[in-house]
């Protein structure tokens, strides 16, 4: 797809900086204009590396024991975007003179963002200026810029391309939470010049991590290139004289490298830059297209019947790819690499909303995301100790490098469910891939340590039920409750998964190393099973629904009629204690539990639960509507499913939450995928395989997607009432359509399979 | 009594600064040495005015709607204590040379703190130095110092007496119980010199409140007195030559005045200083003694049989007098005026622990304390709005001038019970004094507005019970619970008190003004009564006890056996979430409810509750043991009652909580009084009068105290098994002894009345 903007509207630029950011899972560059902005234009000029952070102090006016004392924050790196251009001595800017043509475009097949301008300068000179930007998926350290200029009358060109280390993280002066905090995180240590550029070496202020940015330039026509050190980095000047009608191309190779990945980032960046120069821009562009061709081959979701929705879906999936760390020490931040919202932190968003897309279409990336959680397992153990547990691992609510970065525990660390969510993703991975070797190597350790956590966090009440007091579920409008249904169900599955994986490993005699490593004694299994079987799942007999927690349904329902529209999202207008005191949900909680863990729950309970919670959910979180869409589809509420899907699929393209300037909503994007594949296509992962129940929104003619299961790639094509399943790669496999097993061998057509 | 220390031990000085502070309810001066300290001696040099505050910003790393954005903090005022002394050119210090005699003494009958020293200087000179300090109860703005020097061999004396405005508040970033941010709050605006001293005018940095300190000096023998401005205030030099064996006396009159009380503090302080000079030191000392004679006449509690306990009790009552604001715009801070712990804030400590002492023995002071809560009723209304309530008043958990100053709402604003506690104190006041005019003027407004709060905070559940979700009771080890028994019971009484007082006013046609002022409609009364009658009081049928809250008894009991002694207080060693998850109480909660609101609760339920909660209470709060003492006495557990009383009565004298350096524990002191009068003497205030059940600890021979009831002063004297009640002032009155009405007319002797 191509996302196109044909108008330059200054008031939209901050949002477009997020929408048109270029990233590759390792680095991300916001869509800022190379030439800069006049005063008064809202902009966040940013460049980030996934997982590269500084440490900031968390100062509380009233600090209690165990409150996180520091947080990790994704840092704004040296500005490597700036290129100023003088045409016959007159400086180019999209904001001066006249723009006779303007187009910015993201192409998700080529992986490029381009900006085309026909410009007439204040003095009347004409020029065509085009800029192409690419964050290379094949070479994650590379950010490439191609700068093309054509002058109808010819003339002199002077480029000044800067690397500027005088950068700070974004501050909102009206926000008292950040006013007193240190915002400069990057300090220049060294600058070395090259004939066509140079390299800067910087270090973060507190975490003391090194990062290097090497920038080299190549002119595609004779030009004079010189570089010069500045107090904040270096500037490369490129001067040439351009004949009338000809196009001058300047290629900027920017390579970032950091100490979390390599020992000597400076040498690494220099080496990679040389490789890129040797390869040349054209080949690099081809690599990008080839990478994306392969990506879309399995990841593409096609929708026939609504171009805007199709555009939104493809945009979302591309952003997920741009956001996903693939190096096992990074993950998917809430805003990807597109902005500084949520400070580059990783949440449960990955496991519940984003991971399935990768699991089903790029399982090798899914595995890297799991690796990340494995890499911070020691931190999760340490976090559990801080929170009072002598055994087990408690994943932090928000983190970059593993430690808890939440500064308000009632809707932070108290969300113990993230630990169950991580366990769930490991178990999903195993069920879909059957990768037992990975379970032996890493998965079992995570599952056993997380299972141990629940035994410590919970206890048997006087009726012999196993309960989990004082936790917070996904719905942050109700905090510190007893027996949050979602959390308890998640813990129950975590406990059972641990037992199941342990037994599988034991059958193959693969259980030894993990037992030895974590001192696991088989007698613990019985305790896991006992707690899982005794798990308290609060059910309200009067309403015939599961209660969000022990006391939720006893509280008064929020007075929605008396709540003016401008009071949403409620969290910005009501004290948390007032929210906690009412039946009002920020997002799907029990309904999400029914999506993830539906087995054994009667249809009428699912339906009543959906109806009940829908009435009291505000969807103030962008993680909510997709879940309601999925469950509406599950319950045959097709109109609702479609409406919630519409509210999900273009969240950022339409800036629906009014904060896309801070970055894209990656979980929501994953949720759009889930709403189609698990919603309309009804996919559920069960122990015996993949189960589907297809439906087709009345507004569409059909849709298509592919799914990896074990080593088999299946393609699903819905057209009207008909379903075609095609075996694209691998061996025949059985899937379940509306409960019936279907062996997919080559291609299968099922008529009237779609509701 | 006399509190005496005969040894100068540097390591004890910080604690002694609190123990020997001099205060009078308006100003407080820590017991610092005039001459200062050598480096390395821990000291907090402080001088405070009750209710005089600066405003500090509360910056949260994660701020949610409605979090208090600023707090009031009692400020350390200009240092007015310093007096340096040179004897024949050699500077005096208790830390140099040799001390042949040292004694510091507080005399609670004269209201003086004296320090006597026989000193031998490093060069061998001998001197007697005595300092007398007094915060005048008769003239609250006056702090008086008498400095006496005797030289066996005579010689020259030079005094340098300073007023120094370069002061800051004390900081300990590692302790949540004291302020965490260093801030200078006092800024010098003006200095004016007088021949014998001067006056400084200062202003606080943010609250912009003016305070003036005038200091004048008088020598009781010929001396040369000069004053000189300094960058931080002024210094007064007093020079004289002292004949051998004679005593030179220097009198320092320090007068503080502030803008919260008067428009022009500087002029006020100057005027008062002149008055004091005219009166002279001897007369001022006599005023003090006369004030205290009158105070002890009604407030003295005598204990025969244990001198240490008697000392502790009298010390405590004196400290309560020193701490209590009597001007209707101040109250009793958690640490009184003795230190900066809890930042000079007023809590529920006043109403539940301290107020009864004044009500029973100095009702005119009790009324001033009520006036304070009335003066901040508008702030309580505003606080209720922030917390989401459209009607009613919610008192802040901690405040100086009325706004919520708590920065952690789960154990701050969520403690809604403080509103019930305030209402309780008004109702107690009425029941004991029958002062219906005060109810018409102020009390009814407080009772009706607080009653309205409960209707907004609570709701009817599906069983028709009225519940209060998401509150925190007195026990801060369990936060944000549903239906805290203490809170619900307190709300129930508040609702009923509002109805009762309204009806009484209406009978006398006094209800008009309050109805008009707060727009009160009589139909609200029915709602009050209905909610009170339907109040949910969680009772556990299995254990036969009231549950601290809906889910408390379902949680696992804290593992006390596995908790090492050095992990107490638990709040400094465990994450709050881990504490919340267990049955463990910081302090009396349900047991306190049973003390305050015992009517209608069967004896066996009281006894089982006591036994149950005693097992799981750590008494990590200094407000706990007194309540257990009272209830143990109530239940005939005499040995326990006595043991808990011992753990209460000398908390500060023995530095039992290891933090007396931060200030005295005023609530604990009030609690010691309650443990005697409501514990051993079994006093309960009931609608028909005062009820007693006397007991005598086996270790004592007897005890005595006086009580005001309406306009009658009764004196109670227990000797062995016998009780004598004497009518000291006023008309005959009926009291209830062991349930039997006794008309007290002159003197009544009741044999075998004491258990």
Largest sheet report of chain A: 9 strands, antiparallel
Taking all residues together, what is the mean pLDDT of chain A? 96
Q: Pair with the most extensive interface?
A: A-B, 53 and 55 residues
Tally the helices of chain A.
18
| Multimeric status of the protein | homodimer
> What is the general shape of chain A?
globular
Percent helix range of chain A: 25-40%
Task: Give the N-terminus to C-terminus distance of chain A in angstroms.
Answer: 28 Å
Share in β-strands of chain A: 25-35%
What radius of gyration of chain A results from the CA coordinates?
27 Å
> Structural class of the helices, strands and pairings of chain A?
alpha+beta
Ranges of chain A where pLDDT stays below 50 over 5 or more residues in a row are: 176-180
Strand order of the largest sheet of chain A: 1-9-10-11-12-19-16-15-14
User: What is the tally of beta strands of chain A?
Assistant: 32
Question: What are its keywords?
Answer:
755 residues, alpha+beta, 32 strands, homodimer, globular, five-stranded antiparallel beta sheet, nine-stranded antiparallel beta sheet, 18 helices
